[in-house]
Amino acid sequence: MRHPILLSMCVAGAFTVSACSETEGQDVDRAFQGVNVVDETNLNDVMLSVADPNEAVAYFQRAVGEQPKRIDLQRGLAKSLIRAKRFTEAVPAWKKVTEHDEATDDDRVDLADALIRNNEWDRADTVLDSIPPTFETFKRYRLEAMIADSNQEWKKADSFYETAVGLTTRPAGVMNNWGYSKLTRGDFAAAESLFSDAIRQDDSLFTAKNNLILARGAQQKYSLPVMSTSQEERAQLLYTLGLSAIKQGDTGIGKGLLRDAIDTHPQHFEEAVRSLRALEG
């Protein structure tokens, strides 16, 4: 009489254990899935920041192939193509992002950026025009300024550059671009001022230093301003200034600056040596 009761208890116990095991398994699965999401997010960030650009492209291409509807992976692919300087491929990648249901105005700005990098200025202008004027970001105005520059719309360019400078805490790059715009217009004093401002904001920006020397040379100012430079940088700047002096017709001063550049450079300065030999020959 007791056997059926005992058997029932055993069966009930077995089901209980099985249910517990199944529940625990589900909890573990959910926990591991959560970890996988975190790990994937971290890996995506790593791929977009410190990984080799072409490896990042391959990673996101695989990810998009596996989950083609995820806009974050599409963005990752488009950004990694920009990092890899594969601009021709980046344009359709960003276009695909902008066609996604979850696309934002930031994505459209990034498409315009890719188009400019791919030398498609008119298309970039059209894309920016499609974005509401109420969408005001540093990157949007920086691109608007560059397009205005390319169209020689100087007043618009100055307005956009000024707005962009006010929308970032790191304005050195845009100040350098604005200065270069002034340089190409022949407004050398304004260009010199903007390059100086850029260097004060970021004294590691060698492009701004070299542009500053070009602006000073165009005004026949043949001395290096006070700024932080390495020995090699100083030699390069003296070389730039020497060539600028020669271009202005001040050949004697230019030769002296080339000699200074050769003496200053910590290694053999082949370009300066060739230039000086050509002048003396």
UniProtKB/TrEMBL annotation:
- InterPro entries in the cross-refs: TPR-like_helical_dom_sf
The question of whether Signal is a record keyword is answered with yes
Keywords noted in UniProt: Signal
Tell me the leader sequence span: 1-19
The record's section on PROSITE patterns has: PROKAR_LIPOPROTEIN
**Name of the protein:** Tetratricopeptide repeat protein
Q: Which organism is it from?
A: Roseovarius bejariae
